[in-house]
UniProtKB/TrEMBL annotation:
One of its GO terms (cellular component) is lysosome. Residues 408-484 form the Alpha-L-fucosidase C-terminal domain. Alpha-L-fucosidase is responsible for hydrolyzing the alpha-1,6-linked fucose joined to the reducing-end N-acetylglucosamine of the carbohydrate moieties of glycoproteins. Its EC number is 3.2.1.51. One of its GO terms (molecular function) is alpha-L-fucosidase activity. SMART domains: Alpha_L_fucos (SM00812). SUPFAM superfamilies: (Trans)glycosidases (SSF51445). It comes from Synoicihabitans lomoniglobus. It is an enzyme of class 3 (hydrolase). It comes from the Bacteria. This is alpha-L-fucosidase.
Amino acid sequence: MPLARRLLLLAAMTLALTIPASAAPDEDPWSAIDARPNPAWWGEAKFGLFIHWGPYAVPAFSAQNEYAEWYWKALMDESVGHHAIVKSFHAANYGADFDYQDFAPDFTAQLFNPQDWADLFVRSGARYVVLTSKHHDGFALWPSADASRTWNRPWNAVEIGPQRDVLGDLAAATRDAGLKFGIYFSLYEWFNPLYQADPDRFVSEHMIPQFKDVVNRYHPSVIFADGEWEHPAALWHSTEMLDWLFHHSPSAADVVVNDRWGKETRHAHGGYFTTEYGSGMADATHPWEENRGMGHSYGYSRTENLADYTTGREFVLMLADIVSRGGNFLLNIGPTADGRIPVIMQQRLTEIGDWLSINGEAIYGTTPWKRSTQWSAGIIRDSERGQYKSGYDILKLTVAPDPGQAVKEVLFTRKGTDLFAICPVLPAATLRLRDVAAPATTVVTLLGNGTALSWQTDGDDLLIDMPAIDVSRDGGRAAYVFKLAGALTP
């Protein structure tokens, strides 16, 4: 064998030994990705905030029960159910010749103060924040040269509109406040000329370079992918991107990803499974997260009224219910085009934060107990389970049931040897926890009260005597949490 050929063969063998493959040639590339454990912080955090913000905040319009961030798609696509409503609104207020991209200069963010936002996020009790780096309209909230290049016009927040690195500014402020920062990243872009002409070239020449750019710049701790449903993961090259993310990116050690990486991947692959405007999953056989807006839309919608907004009490009950089943809760806010968080959204966040400031011990860092719920007497009608817009009436499930319907009178979480019993309604005199055995050394307290409560057993049940609480002075709570310290075996 000629010397030159032997040297080339030796070099090839050396390269094969020094660059390990993420999966064997015959192995499913998802196997290694799915086997990667999530960083511990995500499962301990429990509560995060979603932020949908972009040029769609300028018209801030949606039909009833629809998403305002889908304004452009609804305007242009006759197959969208509320197309006629959006088209009529657009023509009447902006004119038929006004293009969606003409909203960008009015997406000013002139009142955007990332430090104020971060302070509110801390007060809400959230432990992580996920901002739309770009939605399906392709507008980038960071100085993405790829965005402007493929759209053939300024199409990022530094070149037009805010004229600042919105993503970078909020990343710095939230991290300075002690929160984890993540990004939402849409794989597809509705009307990107390159995507419409050649999806394969769009992926290789635009999406993948853009994905690596945003990760290399901001080191996100969460990546919430979306817009995956038109193609399988193979077209998006999702496993290759995730292999790079987990082994070669600056986010490798800290990042967690969801399940939206191809039209076949939801609830099949990814670090955590997602449900959207639903009830979440029944249990914690796989990490999962429910995400929803405060009203019917993620992006800010001026058409939503008070009745469209979920109450603070409902959000607290959702959080407790979701966490009792092993899930995380990602609650969305939609800022205005000038950078304000609507006051009603601020109010909801502070209500949640006020409850967590007293009861967070029963939420953060907890795991599910052997059962998540104690049902009352009556007909049990639990929530629907589904990936998207499944029925979830938390008030009917807890405090305002239909006649004859059972309610979740206690939600359980645990932390080490401590058991937490979360009661949506404060029992009048005695709380009966069915099938709860505890050693005599167990100390029972009501979080926020601190005084040890008397308790006794009755057969297989544990009975807790209620403390005297003046609800008029206490203000009333969305739920009351009893801590049974030392009740469980390690």
